[in-house]
């Protein structure tokens, strides 16, 4: 051992680096940065991969930034700084009991993370619940947007049946814990074929769902049940916009994405075959290709 006094330190550093990359869903070569930021009374976990044009991606309910584990490296390799966050109470983020989450706080948190990371403007994207958050961010700070990506999401307010669905999710989480939402949600996140042939995908998303706090599950469900009508907002969007949706999405089927495309001037719609609600994860290669093809037009 006296011949190699630095070996334990080198092995420890290497192990830490590889572990960090694994947690970030990236590779060692991508050199991901991650941390926790105290913003608006919450502690928000973030992962940042790559250099170049910033791209902030916001996850849906009740997931975490690891939804984008298959997107970060591919987008970063093409010249983007890809930033993902866990909304308060989800993943590795925490929230005060006084404010477990709301549409306003989710939007404020995301803008505050941009500030703390020195990002003045970014391409900002949101999946499912992330879409209403992106719309709220745009209403508050349109000057922070270089472009917008809307992923398996919706601009319409929740109708009465959908309101009851989300409130039922909140009650389920309160009664039986976050793990109780797995069976209710995973059937819509992935297609039946993927669940049959790629069970590891279902396990990965199931584990993310289980990480959320009960308070976050309740808060997010309430946000979805009470989200405002963002159709008027669509007509005010002047930045380049990409709309992605899985062809088999049964939560917010492609017809809602088609309606958004009709109302956002100059927007582009891409429907991904063989994908359900978590198309960004289930068909990551197709989603990455669509984002990069579109992003080249963003100036």
TrEMBL record:
Keywords for the protein's UniProt record, in alphabetical order: Plasmid, Signal
Domain AB hydrolase-1, chain residue ranges per copy: 54-284
Signal peptide stretch: 1-24
Gene3D superfamilies with a match to the protein in the record: alpha/beta hydrolase
Chloroplast in keyword set: no
Name the record gives this protein: AB hydrolase-1 domain-containing protein
């Amino acid at each position: 051992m006296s011949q190699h006094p630095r070996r334990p330190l080198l092995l420890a550093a290497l192990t830490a680096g590889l572990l960090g990359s694994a947690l970030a869903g990236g590779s060692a070569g991508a050199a991901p940065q991650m941390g926790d930021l105290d913003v608006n009374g919450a502690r928000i976990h973030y992962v940042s991969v790559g250099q170049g044009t910033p791209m902030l991606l916001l996850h849906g309910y009740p997931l975490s930034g690891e939804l984008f584990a298959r997107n970060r490296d591919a987008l970063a390799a093409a010249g983007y700084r890809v930033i993902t966050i866990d909304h308060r109470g989800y993943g590795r983020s925490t929230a005060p009991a006084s404010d477990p989450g709301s549409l306003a706080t989710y939007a404020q948190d995301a803008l505050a993370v941009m500030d703390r990371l020195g990002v003045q403007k970014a391409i900002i994207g949101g999946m499912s619940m992330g879409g209403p958050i992106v719309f709220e961010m745009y209403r508050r700070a349109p000057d922070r947007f270089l472009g917008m990506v809307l992923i398996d999401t919706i601009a319409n307010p929740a109708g009465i049946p959908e309101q009851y669905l989300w409130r039922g999710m909140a009650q389920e989480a309160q009664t039986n814990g976050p793990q109780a939402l797995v069976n209710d949600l995973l059937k819509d996140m992935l297609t039946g074929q993927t669940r049959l042939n790629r069970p590891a995908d279902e396990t990965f998303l199931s584990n993310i769902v289980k990480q959320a706090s009960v308070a976050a599950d309740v808060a997010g469900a309430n946000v979805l049940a009470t989200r405002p009508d963002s159709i008027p907002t669509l007509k005010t969007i002047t930045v380049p916009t990409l709309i992605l949706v899985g062809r088999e999405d049964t939560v917010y089927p492609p017809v809602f994405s088609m309606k958004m495309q009709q109302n956002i001037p100059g927007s582009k719609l891409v429907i991904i075959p063989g994908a359900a609600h978590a198309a960004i994860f289930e068909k990551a290669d197709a989603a990455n290709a669509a984002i990069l093809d579109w992003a080249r037009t963003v100036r």
